[in-house]
């Protein structure tokens, strides 16, 4: 609880510093929402023309997209600079965090906090419209609302874990931007769409090596279609815990072997 209070104070300080430039704050939020909206519009155009992709309707695809968007928004709000660890390693700025009387990871998470307001609003809007259509089609009932909330939180933890695992590779590789492009950006973009559209080898990759499909696709099979049983939800929660736990473990190993650039 002490560290949570400390994190809250650091986040509020970061927010106050960002609000010194209000136009930049709101403009960047708007542009982030616009970029995500264009991405979803491309998918919507395809689905409106062909009706479905591999049996997935526009509402179902919108549900998958919104879940992942909100999970990403939470992760990148709570731990934005975990994704930018490379610049701390290259510049030697990680040294300043080592001198603070807080855990290094907590200090990194509260540094330059990025409030994803635009993505959050856009994700909520797409989710609301998609769920309304699915309710009308009889695919969802009221229990799906709390389950969806749990999946979003589970997905954010999973994305955090994947991001943390990738970031800790920087303690050995230093330059990790290209690796992040694969494990975070490319993999997350892939599962914005139904996993069934990809070849088997890629489905296996997104379920095992980079298990980002557990953030939205796997639990959605149960919530939207009743497939697989409750164990699909439990497997998604378990995957999030395992990946996040592995990320914390590798972080401890990496930080213990960190050597400053001396700058």
TrEMBL record:
Protein's UniProt keywords contain Transmembrane: yes
Pfam families: ABC2_membrane_6 (PF06182)
InterPro entries: ABC-2_transporter-like
Transmembrane residue ranges: 29-50, 124-145, 151-173, 205-224, 230-251
Keywords: Membrane, Transmembrane, Transmembrane helix
Superkingdom assignment: Bacteria
Name listed for the protein in its UniProt record: ABC transporter permease
Organism: Paenibacillus nasutitermitis
């Amino acid at each position: 609880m002490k560290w949570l209070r400390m994190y809250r104070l650091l986040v509020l300080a970061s927010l106050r510093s960002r609000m010194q430039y209000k136009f930049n704050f709101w403009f960047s939020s708007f542009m982030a929402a616009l970029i995500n909206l264009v991405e979803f519009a491309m998918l919507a155009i395809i689905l409106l023309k062909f009706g479905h992709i591999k049996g997935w309707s526009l509402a179902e695809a919108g549900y998958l997209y919104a879940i992942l968007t909100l999970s990403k928004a939470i992760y990148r709000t709570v731990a934005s600079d975990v994704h930018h660890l490379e610049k701390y390693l290259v510049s030697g700025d990680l040294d300043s965090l080592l001198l603070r009387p807080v855990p290094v990871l907590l200090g990194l998470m509260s540094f330059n906090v990025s409030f994803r307001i635009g993505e959050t609003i856009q994700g909520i809007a797409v989710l609301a419209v998609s769920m309304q259509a699915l309710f009308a089609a009889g695919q969802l009932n009221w229990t799906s609302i709390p389950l969806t909330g749990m999946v979003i939180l589970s997905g954010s933890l999973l994305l955090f874990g994947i991001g943390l695992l990738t970031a800790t590779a920087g303690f050995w590789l230093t330059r990790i931007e290209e690796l992040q492009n694969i494990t975070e950006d490319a993999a997350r973009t892939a599962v914005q769409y139904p996993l069934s559209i990809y070849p088997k080898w890629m489905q296996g990759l997104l379920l095992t090596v980079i298990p980002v499909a557990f953030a939205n696709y796997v639990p959605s099979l149960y919530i939207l279609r009743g497939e697989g049983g409750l164990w699909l939800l439990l497997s998604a929660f378990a995957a999030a815990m395992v990946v996040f736990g592995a990320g914390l473990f590798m972080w401890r190993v990496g930080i213990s072997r960190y050597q400053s650039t001396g700058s």
